[in-house]
Amino acid sequence: xxxxxxxxxxxxxxxxxxxxxxxxxxxxxxxxxxxxxxxxxxxxxxxxxxxxxxxxxxxxxxxxxxxxxxxxxxxxxxxxxxxxxxxxxxxxxxxxxxxxxxxxxxxxxxxxxxxxxxxxxxxxxxxxxxxxxxxxxxxxxxxxxxxxxxxxxxxxxxxxxxxxxxxxxxxxxxxxxxxxxxxxxxxx
Amino acid sequence: xxxxxxxxxxxxxxxxxxxxxxxxxxxxxxxxxxxxxxxxxxxxxxxxxxxxxxxxxxxxxxxxxxxxxxxxxxxxxxxxxxxxxxxxxxxxxxxxxxxxxxxxxxxxxxxxxxxxxxxxxxxxxxxxxxxxxxxxxxxxxxxxxxxxxxxxxxxxxxxxxxxxxxxxxxxxxxxxxxxxx
Lengths: 188, 181
Known about the structure:
The structure holds 2 protein chains of 2 kinds.
Chain A: H1 10-19, H2 23-29, H3 33-60, H4 63-79, H5 83-86, H6 90-125, H7 137-163, H8 168-176, H9 180-184
Helix pairs in contact in A: 1-3, 6-7
Chain B: H1 7-33, H2 36-52, H3 63-89, H4 114-126, H5 129-140, H6 145-152, H7 156-173
Helix pairs in contact in B: 1-2, 1-3, 1-5, 2-3, 3-6, 5-7, 6-7
């Protein structure tokens, strides 16, 4: 209950001005000349400030300037890319080729390591590594068995990888790349 | 439109938003930065940022509230950059109290009401940063304390307190002008 001698303070009047309505204040100023005057003064002050600032802005930002601002924004938007599209478009296609890249990388890795193992096996068969081999015979046999198994599985892996339809696009690249066999054959 | 990748259409649609909001945005930026060229740049920055971050916009707030927050940040960034430049170039005590208010306004500024406007500018300029921010957004930007609360991250009650203090100080500073207006 608001007492009869109550008068809204400045903060309450400002809230009334900002909000545009305050039942208690409105009732009060309907009969209190002093507060009605205070509210009117407050409104006049704020309107004057607003008009001053608006006039500054209107002077500063004429229709021509706003049009130029718009054009400039449009130009900059032409160069700007929304965050959603920021990811390079290739990321999508990269995602599509991602499994092929892995298969290709795996195939190359397997081929290189397989070729290396085959070469080591040939050298071992030729006795090239005998001089440096100091381990027992059992160990050599098991190593050779392991080596053969590894070489066989590696070759199998290569065959499987090459048989995969997903490596088809690598064949085109392969056709463009000179193979070691082609490079070595003329020399011989 | 952006989801469909139709950037041209998105830019055209965004142009309508620019038209709708640029006047108010320019007024706010001008009150913040007190320099037409800087305010112009800040508004452009804000629109470009808004466009590039449209995906983060949620309809729970009006676009204007979301955009004004971006604008305020753009203005604050420019203010900071200007302060850094000023620190490098001249000592703070040599800075003019009204940075560029007089040199950057058009000839009309020097006509009727010039002194009053300059007085308002100076009084707003002297407000503490938070009070100035709230006053500019609430009163000159036509936003409610609730909107300003969302824009600035301040509590609504805090916004009201800052607004009250700002208005109180401005009225006191401009008291002498009351009968001259």
